[in-house]
Write a structure and sequence with these properties.
The chain has helices at residues 177-191, 210-219, 229-232; strands spanning 3-5, 8-12, 18-22, 37-41, 46-49, 58-62, 67-74, 77-81, 87-91, 95-98, 102-106, 111-114, 123-127, 132-139, 142-146, 152-156, 160-162, 237-238, 249-252, 264-270, 273-278, 285-290, 300-305. The chain is mainly β. A hairpin with a 5-residue loop joins strand 8 and strand 9 (87-91). It is globular and about 60 Å long.
Length: 308
Protein backbone atom coordinates (compact mmCIF):
# COMPACT_ATOMS: atom_id res chain seq x y z
CA UNK A 1 0.00 0.00 0.00
CA UNK A 2 1.46 3.36 -1.07
CA UNK A 3 -1.20 5.83 0.15
CA UNK A 4 -4.77 5.98 1.41
CA UNK A 5 -7.76 8.30 1.38
CA UNK A 6 -10.56 7.41 3.77
CA UNK A 7 -11.68 3.85 2.81
CA UNK A 8 -9.66 3.73 -0.44
CA UNK A 9 -6.02 2.63 -0.77
CA UNK A 10 -3.44 3.26 -3.46
CA UNK A 11 -1.61 -0.01 -4.08
CA UNK A 12 1.34 -1.02 -6.24
CA UNK A 13 1.47 -4.45 -7.84
CA UNK A 14 4.61 -6.52 -8.33
CA UNK A 15 4.78 -5.39 -12.00
CA UNK A 16 4.95 -1.74 -10.92
CA UNK A 17 1.43 -0.71 -11.94
CA UNK A 18 -0.63 1.27 -9.40
CA UNK A 19 -4.33 1.84 -8.72
CA UNK A 20 -6.99 2.39 -6.06
CA UNK A 21 -8.72 -0.46 -4.17
CA UNK A 22 -11.66 -0.20 -1.75
CA UNK A 23 -10.79 -1.45 1.76
CA UNK A 24 -13.43 -4.22 1.69
CA UNK A 25 -11.18 -6.00 -0.83
CA UNK A 26 -7.99 -5.75 1.23
CA UNK A 27 -6.96 -7.89 4.18
CA UNK A 28 -4.18 -6.42 6.37
CA UNK A 29 -1.12 -8.63 6.73
CA UNK A 30 -1.43 -8.37 10.50
CA UNK A 31 -4.88 -9.62 11.45
CA UNK A 32 -6.76 -7.32 13.80
CA UNK A 33 -7.11 -8.70 17.29
CA UNK A 34 -10.10 -7.37 19.18
CA UNK A 35 -9.31 -7.67 22.89
CA UNK A 36 -12.37 -5.76 24.06
CA UNK A 37 -14.43 -7.96 26.35
CA UNK A 38 -16.34 -7.84 29.60
CA UNK A 39 -15.04 -9.06 32.92
CA UNK A 40 -16.54 -9.79 36.32
CA UNK A 41 -14.44 -9.25 39.44
CA UNK A 42 -14.18 -12.47 41.47
CA UNK A 43 -12.08 -11.20 44.40
CA UNK A 44 -13.19 -9.23 47.45
CA UNK A 45 -11.92 -5.63 47.73
CA UNK A 46 -9.66 -5.90 44.70
CA UNK A 47 -7.08 -3.16 44.15
CA UNK A 48 -7.10 -1.39 40.78
CA UNK A 49 -3.52 -0.24 40.17
CA UNK A 50 -2.00 2.51 38.07
CA UNK A 51 0.25 0.06 36.21
CA UNK A 52 0.51 -3.76 35.89
CA UNK A 53 2.62 -4.23 39.01
CA UNK A 54 1.77 -5.40 42.54
CA UNK A 55 3.76 -2.47 43.91
CA UNK A 56 2.05 0.14 41.72
CA UNK A 57 -0.14 2.89 43.18
CA UNK A 58 -3.71 1.86 43.99
CA UNK A 59 -6.23 4.11 42.18
CA UNK A 60 -9.37 2.41 43.50
CA UNK A 61 -10.62 -0.66 45.35
CA UNK A 62 -13.58 -2.50 43.83
CA UNK A 63 -15.83 -5.23 45.17
CA UNK A 64 -16.73 -8.71 44.02
CA UNK A 65 -19.10 -9.00 41.01
CA UNK A 66 -18.19 -5.52 39.71
CA UNK A 67 -18.50 -5.53 35.89
CA UNK A 68 -15.55 -4.02 34.00
CA UNK A 69 -14.52 -3.56 30.37
CA UNK A 70 -11.16 -5.10 29.45
CA UNK A 71 -9.29 -3.14 26.79
CA UNK A 72 -5.81 -4.70 26.98
CA UNK A 73 -3.80 -7.39 28.74
CA UNK A 74 -0.15 -7.73 29.67
CA UNK A 75 1.80 -10.39 31.59
CA UNK A 76 -1.17 -11.70 33.54
CA UNK A 77 -2.81 -8.29 34.08
CA UNK A 78 -5.96 -6.77 32.56
CA UNK A 79 -6.24 -3.07 31.69
CA UNK A 80 -9.82 -2.21 32.61
CA UNK A 81 -12.36 0.60 32.36
CA UNK A 82 -14.94 0.91 35.12
CA UNK A 83 -18.44 2.36 34.67
CA UNK A 84 -17.20 5.75 35.88
CA UNK A 85 -14.55 5.72 33.07
CA UNK A 86 -11.74 5.19 35.59
CA UNK A 87 -8.89 3.16 34.07
CA UNK A 88 -6.41 0.90 35.79
CA UNK A 89 -4.89 -2.58 36.02
CA UNK A 90 -6.04 -5.68 37.90
CA UNK A 91 -4.49 -9.12 38.03
CA UNK A 92 -6.21 -11.63 35.75
CA UNK A 93 -6.45 -14.19 38.57
CA UNK A 94 -9.30 -12.14 40.05
CA UNK A 95 -11.31 -11.53 36.87
CA UNK A 96 -13.76 -13.85 35.11
CA UNK A 97 -14.00 -12.91 31.43
CA UNK A 98 -16.93 -13.31 29.10
CA UNK A 99 -17.58 -12.35 25.45
CA UNK A 100 -18.68 -8.77 24.92
CA UNK A 101 -21.96 -9.67 23.23
CA UNK A 102 -24.54 -6.99 22.56
CA UNK A 103 -28.24 -7.51 23.27
CA UNK A 104 -30.86 -7.58 20.54
CA UNK A 105 -34.67 -7.49 20.76
CA UNK A 106 -36.81 -9.37 18.22
CA UNK A 107 -39.17 -6.82 16.65
CA UNK A 108 -41.47 -9.11 14.64
CA UNK A 109 -43.85 -11.98 15.38
CA UNK A 110 -42.73 -15.57 14.69
CA UNK A 111 -39.33 -14.45 13.43
CA UNK A 112 -37.20 -17.23 11.97
CA UNK A 113 -33.90 -18.13 13.62
CA UNK A 114 -32.01 -19.70 10.71
CA UNK A 115 -29.01 -22.02 10.56
CA UNK A 116 -27.18 -19.76 8.08
CA UNK A 117 -27.42 -16.10 6.93
CA UNK A 118 -29.83 -16.79 4.07
CA UNK A 119 -33.58 -16.71 3.48
CA UNK A 120 -33.26 -20.26 2.13
CA UNK A 121 -31.48 -21.61 5.22
CA UNK A 122 -33.06 -24.11 7.58
CA UNK A 123 -35.34 -22.60 10.24
CA UNK A 124 -34.17 -23.69 13.70
CA UNK A 125 -37.03 -22.10 15.65
CA UNK A 126 -39.47 -19.20 15.48
CA UNK A 127 -38.96 -16.45 18.05
CA UNK A 128 -41.72 -14.33 19.54
CA UNK A 129 -41.78 -10.55 19.41
CA UNK A 130 -39.77 -8.88 22.24
CA UNK A 131 -37.60 -11.97 22.74
CA UNK A 132 -34.07 -10.94 23.76
CA UNK A 133 -30.98 -12.52 22.19
CA UNK A 134 -27.20 -12.11 22.46
CA UNK A 135 -25.74 -10.62 19.28
CA UNK A 136 -22.39 -12.15 18.32
CA UNK A 137 -21.78 -10.42 14.99
CA UNK A 138 -23.09 -9.11 11.69
CA UNK A 139 -22.73 -10.36 8.12
CA UNK A 140 -24.33 -8.98 4.96
CA UNK A 141 -27.60 -7.92 6.57
CA UNK A 142 -27.83 -10.77 9.08
CA UNK A 143 -27.11 -10.88 12.82
CA UNK A 144 -25.45 -13.93 14.36
CA UNK A 145 -27.30 -14.49 17.66
CA UNK A 146 -27.76 -16.83 20.62
CA UNK A 147 -31.23 -17.24 22.11
CA UNK A 148 -32.20 -17.92 25.73
CA UNK A 149 -31.86 -21.68 25.22
CA UNK A 150 -28.27 -21.33 23.91
CA UNK A 151 -29.31 -22.00 20.31
CA UNK A 152 -27.08 -20.21 17.80
CA UNK A 153 -28.42 -18.96 14.51
CA UNK A 154 -29.05 -15.99 12.23
CA UNK A 155 -31.80 -13.34 12.13
CA UNK A 156 -32.23 -10.78 9.36
CA UNK A 157 -31.46 -7.20 10.38
CA UNK A 158 -35.05 -6.13 9.62
CA UNK A 159 -36.27 -8.09 12.65
CA UNK A 160 -33.73 -7.08 15.30
CA UNK A 161 -33.44 -3.88 17.37
CA UNK A 162 -30.21 -3.39 19.30
CA UNK A 163 -30.64 -2.57 23.00
CA UNK A 164 -28.76 0.57 24.07
CA UNK A 165 -27.66 -0.60 27.50
CA UNK A 166 -26.82 -4.26 28.16
CA UNK A 167 -27.28 -3.69 31.90
CA UNK A 168 -31.06 -3.64 31.41
CA UNK A 169 -32.14 -5.97 28.62
CA UNK A 170 -35.78 -5.49 29.59
CA UNK A 171 -35.78 -1.88 28.40
CA UNK A 172 -35.57 -1.37 24.61
CA UNK A 173 -34.18 1.81 23.07
CA UNK A 174 -36.76 4.59 22.90
CA UNK A 175 -37.00 8.33 22.31
CA UNK A 176 -37.11 9.09 26.01
CA UNK A 177 -35.09 11.23 28.40
CA UNK A 178 -32.96 8.17 29.18
CA UNK A 179 -32.21 7.82 25.47
CA UNK A 180 -30.83 11.34 25.26
CA UNK A 181 -28.83 10.85 28.45
CA UNK A 182 -27.31 7.75 26.89
CA UNK A 183 -26.50 9.60 23.67
CA UNK A 184 -24.80 12.38 25.64
CA UNK A 185 -22.55 9.74 27.18
CA UNK A 186 -21.93 8.35 23.70
CA UNK A 187 -20.76 11.74 22.47
CA UNK A 188 -18.50 12.36 25.43
CA UNK A 189 -17.03 8.88 25.14
CA UNK A 190 -16.22 9.47 21.46
CA UNK A 191 -14.54 12.81 22.24
CA UNK A 192 -12.26 11.00 24.66
CA UNK A 193 -10.45 9.57 21.62
CA UNK A 194 -9.69 12.92 19.95
CA UNK A 195 -6.14 12.86 18.63
CA UNK A 196 -5.96 9.05 18.43
CA UNK A 197 -3.95 8.13 15.30
CA UNK A 198 -5.60 6.96 12.08
CA UNK A 199 -4.44 3.53 10.88
CA UNK A 200 -6.05 1.42 8.20
CA UNK A 201 -7.69 -1.82 9.32
CA UNK A 202 -7.75 -1.01 13.04
CA UNK A 203 -10.68 -0.66 15.41
CA UNK A 204 -9.04 0.83 18.49
CA UNK A 205 -8.42 1.71 21.08
CA UNK A 206 -4.88 2.80 20.14
CA UNK A 207 -5.66 3.60 16.49
CA UNK A 208 -8.68 3.60 14.16
CA UNK A 209 -9.79 3.82 10.58
CA UNK A 210 -13.09 5.64 9.98
CA UNK A 211 -15.49 2.71 10.26
CA UNK A 212 -13.33 1.10 12.94
CA UNK A 213 -13.84 4.22 15.06
CA UNK A 214 -17.62 4.27 14.75
CA UNK A 215 -17.93 0.51 15.30
CA UNK A 216 -15.70 0.73 18.41
CA UNK A 217 -17.68 3.61 19.92
CA UNK A 218 -21.06 1.97 19.35
CA UNK A 219 -19.82 -1.43 20.49
CA UNK A 220 -19.05 0.04 23.90
CA UNK A 221 -22.70 1.08 24.14
CA UNK A 222 -24.07 -2.32 23.24
CA UNK A 223 -24.46 -1.93 19.47
CA UNK A 224 -22.80 -4.19 16.91
CA UNK A 225 -22.25 -2.29 13.64
CA UNK A 226 -21.03 -3.74 10.33
CA UNK A 227 -17.29 -3.19 9.84
CA UNK A 228 -17.15 -1.07 6.65
CA UNK A 229 -18.61 2.40 6.09
CA UNK A 230 -20.57 1.10 3.10
CA UNK A 231 -22.26 -1.58 5.21
CA UNK A 232 -22.78 0.73 8.19
CA UNK A 233 -24.90 2.85 5.84
CA UNK A 234 -27.47 0.02 5.85
CA UNK A 235 -27.86 -0.05 9.65
CA UNK A 236 -30.63 1.72 11.55
CA UNK A 237 -32.99 4.11 9.81
CA UNK A 238 -32.32 6.78 7.21
CA UNK A 239 -32.50 10.36 8.49
CA UNK A 240 -32.43 13.62 6.54
CA UNK A 241 -29.50 15.98 6.96
CA UNK A 242 -31.77 18.70 8.34
CA UNK A 243 -33.05 16.30 11.02
CA UNK A 244 -29.69 15.08 12.33
CA UNK A 245 -29.30 14.58 16.07
CA UNK A 246 -26.53 13.47 18.40
CA UNK A 247 -25.36 9.93 17.69
CA UNK A 248 -26.49 9.72 14.06
CA UNK A 249 -23.96 8.27 11.61
CA UNK A 250 -23.05 10.54 8.69
CA UNK A 251 -21.61 9.23 5.41
CA UNK A 252 -19.52 10.87 2.71
CA UNK A 253 -18.09 10.40 -0.77
CA UNK A 254 -14.47 11.44 -0.42
CA UNK A 255 -12.76 9.84 -3.42
CA UNK A 256 -12.38 11.36 -6.88
CA UNK A 257 -15.54 12.44 -8.67
CA UNK A 258 -18.42 12.94 -6.25
CA UNK A 259 -20.96 10.35 -7.42
CA UNK A 260 -22.61 9.26 -4.19
CA UNK A 261 -20.40 6.29 -3.35
CA UNK A 262 -19.88 5.93 0.39
CA UNK A 263 -16.21 5.93 1.36
CA UNK A 264 -16.17 7.62 4.78
CA UNK A 265 -18.22 7.68 8.00
CA UNK A 266 -18.36 9.74 11.18
CA UNK A 267 -20.76 10.43 14.05
CA UNK A 268 -22.81 13.61 14.37
CA UNK A 269 -22.28 15.41 17.70
CA UNK A 270 -24.55 18.45 17.23
CA UNK A 271 -24.10 22.09 16.18
CA UNK A 272 -23.27 21.09 12.62
CA UNK A 273 -20.23 19.06 13.67
CA UNK A 274 -19.23 15.42 13.47
CA UNK A 275 -16.40 13.38 14.98
CA UNK A 276 -14.47 10.90 12.84
CA UNK A 277 -11.15 9.16 12.24
CA UNK A 278 -9.72 11.19 9.38
CA UNK A 279 -7.11 9.84 6.97
CA UNK A 280 -6.54 13.26 5.39
CA UNK A 281 -2.92 14.30 5.00
CA UNK A 282 -3.42 17.23 7.40
CA UNK A 283 -5.01 15.11 10.11
CA UNK A 284 -4.60 11.29 10.18
CA UNK A 285 -6.26 11.13 13.59
CA UNK A 286 -9.63 11.41 15.31
CA UNK A 287 -10.90 14.97 14.82
CA UNK A 288 -14.08 17.06 14.86
CA UNK A 289 -15.07 18.60 11.52
CA UNK A 290 -17.77 20.92 10.20
CA UNK A 291 -20.57 19.18 8.32
CA UNK A 292 -21.83 22.24 6.43
CA UNK A 293 -18.58 24.03 5.70
CA UNK A 294 -15.30 23.28 3.96
CA UNK A 295 -14.29 19.91 2.53
CA UNK A 296 -17.26 17.85 3.73
CA UNK A 297 -20.05 20.28 2.79
CA UNK A 298 -20.56 18.93 -0.74
CA UNK A 299 -19.46 15.36 -0.01
CA UNK A 300 -22.29 14.37 2.34
CA UNK A 301 -24.24 11.36 0.99
CA UNK A 302 -26.64 10.13 3.69
CA UNK A 303 -27.17 9.58 7.41
CA UNK A 304 -28.51 6.75 9.57
CA UNK A 305 -30.10 6.79 13.02
CA UNK A 306 -29.01 3.79 15.07
CA UNK A 307 -30.78 4.59 18.36
CA UNK A 308 -34.52 5.01 17.75
Amino acid sequence: MKDNEDDWYLVELSNGSTGWVYNDLIIPVEEKKDLIKKGLITGENLNVRKSPDMNAEVVKTIGKDTQVTIVDEMDGWFHIILQDDLKGWVHSDYVSTKPNYSTGRVTGSNVNLRANPSMDAKVLIKLNQDTYVAVKGFQEGWYSVIDGSDREGWIHQDFIAIVLDNSDASTPVSRSASRFAGLAKLGEYAKGFLGTPYKYGTSGPKSFDCSGFTSYIFKNFGVVLPRSSKDQATAGEKVLKKDLSLGDLVFFDTVGKIDGKITHVGMYIGDGKFIHASSGSSAKKVVISELNEGYYKDRFVTARRIFN
